Each structure stands twice: as C-alpha cells, then as structure tokens.
Amino acid sequence: MRRDVFQAIADPTRRAIIALIALHAMTPNAIADHFNMTRQAISKHMKILTECELVKPDHKGREIYYQLEIDKIKEVDKWVEQYRKIWETRLNQLDDLLATIKKAEK
Amino acid sequence: MNSDLLFDFSVNRENKTVRILREFNAGIDLVWDAWTTPELLDRWWGPKPMVAKTKIMNFEVGGRRFFAMISPDGQERWFLQKFTSISPKTNFKTYNTFADKDENPELPGSDWDLNFSEQNGTTKVDITITNESRERFERIADGFREGFTLGLQQLDELLLTLSQK
C-alpha cells in the first residue's frame, strides 16, 4: 500500500507523536508513556510514520530510537506555502483589477 | 494590497479542506462580476507568471467554466469548473477537476463554496475548498508548481549544458 505524508499527518495521535519526538529521539516505550495507548498501538503509528519517511528508526543496542526527519516535515510546509502563495498572488491581482476598474468608472 | 484588508489561509488536513478569507476594497456588485465574468476572470486569475484563458463559460447552474492556465513557455494546464449552485451576489458553488484539452475530467475533484458579503463598502469573499480524496488534496498545487519552478529548471538545464562544454 502506498503511504503518503498527508495521510500520516491526518491522524491527531501521529501529529502529537511528531511534536513529541521533534524535541529528541525516543523509544516506542517512552512515546507510549505519553499517551493512553498500548505499546502495540504506538508501534502501528510508528510503522506508518516510518513508511512515510517522516521518522527514522535508529537501532542502539536492543533499543530503537525514533527520530524526526526534519527535511520531510519541511516538504509538507513547503507544499502548503506554495498553495497559499498561489492564492495570495491571485487575490492581489484581483485587488489591482478592482482598483483599475473603480478608477476608470470615476 | 491594502494591509488593513483581511487575508486568511488555513488548511485542515483531517477534513481535506482549505479555507481562504479575503476582503476587497470594492462593492459586492463589482467583486461578484470579477468572479463570474470570463473577461474579468482572465485578467486576474493568473497567478503570475501564469495567465488564465477561459475557453468556455456559461455562468448558470449546470453550466461550466473550461479554462487553461498557461505558463510562460506556453504550456497549458486545463481545468473544468461546473457550477452546481448560484445565489446571485451571495454564494456560488462549483465542482472542480483537472482536465485534458478536450475537456475530459480527471477524477476525483474538489468542491468549492464561495460566499460573498459586503460591509461598509468592503466585500468579503469566504472560500472553502473540499477535496474528494487525500490524493487529490495532495495534488492541489499541481500545475502551479510546474509554472513556478519552470524558470529555475530552465536555468538548471542551461547550466548543465554550459558545464558539459
């Protein structure tokens, strides 16, 4: 199944996980401690986040530390920023047109 | 843009919606015309460096606007907007899809809900865009992105060509 970034961040728990590990890399147990959820449920979320490449598992001995892929997160922001820019530019152009028409009518 | 005029842009990923609020320093009659008349739409829809060209438009319920956004190198990206509901100078709704040049829609699409209101000579436009699928939501900026990045790509290619000599 194809995973995409937007599917990953559509879920509120996953967004909370992202916010949590943005501070520092964490093990699944440490993450589970922050939520009223089983370790199993957290693992499922981590699997999706890993498949979307939003987090990267780092094996240290017998523990897995998940860390945030900052560049991938930035990509998401960039996408929203691009769309925002489109509308901003477009609506500013409408501003200019309205001003031109109003001037011509005077 | 007058800095006193509102511009708000927000994305709700769970609902796959984008909401855009914008005020204009003009009366509702003029703003409504600018959104519903092809000759006026083509003068501002762009956005720069792209230009919009409306090929067909009949602004009535069941009617459509079939238009292209043309990038500086002449590439055309076609869009189809069907008017699903119209309340003059208050609201209109459209169903939007990407399309090919022969007007074949690429499903799924998105629903646009546009509300117009005037207060003290300022007109507020409140737009909600709801995407039918996550995939569509993700692709929302397609076509524009191409136009915006084109200039840089051309530069890349030029540099590559030059460096190979």
Question: Can you put this structure into words, describing what you see?
Answer:
The complex is a heterodimer of chains A (106) and B (165). Chain A has 106 residues and is mostly helical. Chain A has two domains: 1-68, Orthogonal Bundle (Arc Repressor Mutant, subunit A), CATH 1.10.10.10; 70-106. Chain A is 67% helix and 11% strand. In chain A, a hairpin with a 2-residue loop joins strand 1 (55-60) and strand 2. The mean pLDDT of chain A is 84. Chain B is α+β, with helices and mostly antiparallel strands and 165 residues long. Helix content of chain B is 25%, strand content 45%. Chain B has four helices and eight strands. Chain B has helices spanning 28-36, 38-44, 134-138, 144-164; strands at residues 7-12, 17-24, 51-57, 64-70, 76-87, 91-99, 105-119, 122-131. Chain B has an eight-stranded antiparallel beta sheet with strand order 1-2-8-7-6-5-4-3. In chain B, a hairpin with a 5-residue loop joins strand 6 (91-99) and strand 7 (105-119). The radius of gyration of chain B is 18 Å and the shape is globular. The model of chain B is unreliable at 145-160 (pLDDT under 50). Chains A and B meet through helix 1 and helix 5 of A and strand 1, strand 2, helix 1, helix 2 and helix 3 of B.
Comma- or semicolon-separated keywords:
heterodimer; A: about 110 residues; mainly alpha; Arc Repressor Mutant, subunit A; 2 domains; two-stranded antiparallel ribbon; 5 helices; B: about 160 residues; alpha+beta; Alpha-D-Glucose-1,6-Bisphosphate, Chain A, domain 4; 8-stranded antiparallel β-sheet; 4 helices; about 25% helix; globular
* Principal-axes shape call of chain B: globular
Mean pLDDT of chain B: 83
| Beta-strand residue percentage of chain A | 5-15%
Helix content of chain B: 25-40%
**CATH architecture label name of the largest domain in chain A:** Orthogonal Bundle
Which sequence of strands runs across the widest sheet of chain B? 1-2-8-7-6-5-4-3
Straight-line distance between termini of chain B: 46 Å
CATH architecture of chain B: 2-Layer Sandwich
Return the average pLDDT of chain A rounded to an integer: 84
Strand order of the largest sheet of chain A: 1-2
Order of helices and strands of chain A: HHHHEEH
